[in-house]
Amino acid sequence: MSVPARPFEHDGIAFGCDYNPEQWTPDVWDEDIALMRDAGVDLVAINIFGWAHIEPRAGEYDFSRLDDIVERLHTAGIRINLGTGTASTPAWLTTAHPEILPVVEDGTRRYPGGRQAWCPSSPVYREAALALVDAVAARYGSHPAIALWHVSNELGCHNALCHCDESAGAFREWLRARYGTVAEVNRAWGTAFWSQTYYEWDEILTPRATLSSRNPGHVLDFHRFSSDALLEHYRAEAEVIRARSEVPITTNFMVTAHIENLDYWSWAGDMDIVANDHYLDHRLGDPRSELAFAADLSRGLGQGAPWILMEHSTGAVNWQPLNTPKAPGEMIRNSLTHVARGADGVCFFQWRASVQGSEKFHSAMLPHAGTDSAVWREVVELGGIVDRIGEIAGSRVESDVALLFSWESWWASQSETRPSQSLGYLDQVHASYRALHANGLTVDVVAPGADLSAYRLVVVPGLHLMTEADAAVLTAWIAAGGTALITFSTAIVDENDRVYTGGYAGPLREALGLHIEEFAPVAPGLALTLTDGSTARLWSERSRTTTAEVAASFTDGPAEGMPALTRNIWGDGTAHYLATLLSDADYRDLVARLSAEAGVAPAAPIRPAAGDLEIVRRRGEGASYLFVINHGETDVRVDSDGLDLVTGAEVAGGITVPAGAVRIIREEAAA
Questions:
Q1: Does 184 participate in catalysis according to the annotation?
Q2: Which of 580, 598, 616 is the last residue of a domain?
Q3: Tens of pLDDT, residues 436-461
Q4: Residue 635: other Cβ atoms inside 10 A
Q5: Does 290 qualify as catalytic in the annotation?
Q6: Is the separation of the CB atoms in 631 and 614 below 8 Å?
Q7: DSSP string spanning 597-616?
Q8: Catalytic residue among 55, 166, 290, 311
Q9: What is the tally of structural domains in the chain?
Q10: Residue of 154, 166, 290, 614 marked active site
Q11: Model confidence over 80-103: pLDDT tens digits?
Q12: Judgement on whether residues 574 and 640 belong to the same structural domain of the protein
């Protein structure tokens, strides 16, 4: 998808928002549009939740208010990201057809009153939704204000896993297409266990709640089916739009810490441009690092092409246990971190803070306090910066480090009967990424099996599910001279969640030079010590080396005396294996050593070294752009020459970046 089928074209970096004019009267619309122009907003998403407003009764359409706001925005020179309006069902539809409401794993049906009250496999919902899409696309498909089509909204955020009878039937058809016969389903799921063998297709249900743990293969395939079912719905809406409009089409992904149900690697090729929603998650220990990871993964989904940040927040959200506002300057730093990592658009949810409804305490570009507020002043400041850096659009991020990530592995590793409930897949992924991030390294997040030839260092954190084919790509890359860090719980099962026998990490065993015999998880709160002085927690393994050398061993715990960190020469490269979860400081030091070994360094030298600094380079045809984002409380100096696009100052021999500031240096004259 390096060249989208319908490229999204925009003058510079898009600066925009979700707007919900249905919540306001037309006199407020005029005020909003004037303020949007003051802030530099040039892309506005509308009709995201418009179904009940434009189709108040089945088959009866009223576009008067939507026509009005479209024309007002167009007259003001603001381009439109037009939603299909299908994200949430109107009350008349669920009243007439309650069978479209989703069923959760305990078999109970969920009612309307929130959002996404629909089953992805419901033919009744699909018919009604596509009729709406056709009406909207027919009316606005050629309108000059429409810059982008926005299918539904955050597909699968709430309704990804439906267990109704329609879903069960669709699941069986999906299984039939994947496996062909019931016998092959039995083989893939290992149904010989616990007398679970099926003999007829109609015996197979969705994996609803049981009295005991469920079949892991059954659950894994249901995740795959559910992701595919929503993708099928996206494709159905997109097909209707394509028949009516030449404008590019996308939907907003949710590449973030708490959404796991969609395999976006399988979705990304259907997007004319990848778009993502991201919100700082203060339930995590390091939300800023997770923000950078999500941005790098969004870029990876587009094969390195620029993408759009469709939603993020100016301040607090409304759905976390403690909804923390952003510190002064943090919103600007967060926004430009996404741009540094490949975003060609920065948009917010939402424009004007709602005064009613579930999201009335969610922050907005125009807060409840109005324009006499720090948030508004920072929004205007950011809009000015985005306008000044427009030449960056279209450039790409430079990286020689890759991290392998897989939604399928996430699903497989979350089994109800896994060795430790205290440790999840994202714990490993985020720990590895934090160590890379703390060393100032720019990371491409890629799928297992991806071409690794552009990278010097590859990190593989806890990739529990790994096919033999994907393992062969990795080991061949190592043998060709690569340096890899592979962490525990990698390559434990194949694509059918079947354990590789003969020692864990089966298809990687020879490249690692290890014979891993037994997991030895560690209770929360208990510390482990390694012979090199490092500390670790939560996991250890009982293993012995075959050809690897031991870099550090456990000095205590259930794997005392056994390897904790190993190094194995494989062909012309090196495979390092980490059998535990290091403390953040020790993980950072390990990555520093391995990156030096691999010849990997930050985008530019920093004086003094600063853990609160992000430094990323984007390169275009005629110029390169160095982003320096100082999250810390100390000024730092970075070696660079060129022009600072933020301040307009010439840079020669280096630049001092004040605490809390962002500098973006054009290092070469634009062509």
A1: no
A2: 598
A3: 999 999 999 999 999 999 999 999 99
A4: 14
A5: no
A6: yes
A7: HHT---SS-EES--TTEEEE
A8: 311
A9: 2
A10: 154
A11: 999 999 999 999 999 999 999 999
A12: no
